[in-house]
Request: fold
Amino acid sequence: MTSDGTPAVVLVSGGLDSATVLAIARDQGYACHGISFDYGQRHRFELDAAAAVCRAGGAASHRVLRIDPAPFSGSALTDGGEVPTGRSDREMASGIPETYVPARNLVFLSMALGVAEGLGAVDVFIGVNAVDYSGYPDCRGEFIESFQRTANLATRVGVESEAVRVHAPLLELTKGEVIRRGIALGVDYGLTNTCYDPGEDGAPCTECDACRLRERGFRDAGLEDPVRRRCS
Reply:
């Protein structure tokens, strides 16, 4: 499918999933407008990564939306608590982790929807992944489907004309499959940052859930992580 320069909003966190989604949207012919969020997260290095990903990925624009961090309290990513490390696959697959940020994707998608309407766009792309989702309720297909229904009830464009479409092309892919798809599209994963607790220079901790899932993804894809190689 090609979209001949149709505008779309792409949520870009700077991680490997969002970099892959940006490449997928670009490959489908969309003029991609990347948005990232500064919500007081401890892993703020991801915002530098997001900017680099958007530049390299040919985004038509990139903006960082700043949000009062107060509503996002209660997460290890915002309140300064300990980021869980060294968890097994079984532990990561059970329960909601301390790194869950309250209603984050609900808020982010709502703001992305507002940006899309302002741009005259009806397509929003997000890199949620339900296979390796590590317990996050707002990365499930049920949530994406529900939000799309709400979006078409809550917006002028949804009510009066073309339906809003929320694209989650990675939803049913493993991390290894995501990486192989991105490599085929020319994604430079050396620009991405996945770690929940990186060093000041962006070096990954290698032990948080996000790092471990990323490591497994590159191993399953039969590839070396360029970020690990650079930091070793």
The mean pLDDT is 91. The chain has one domain: 7-231.
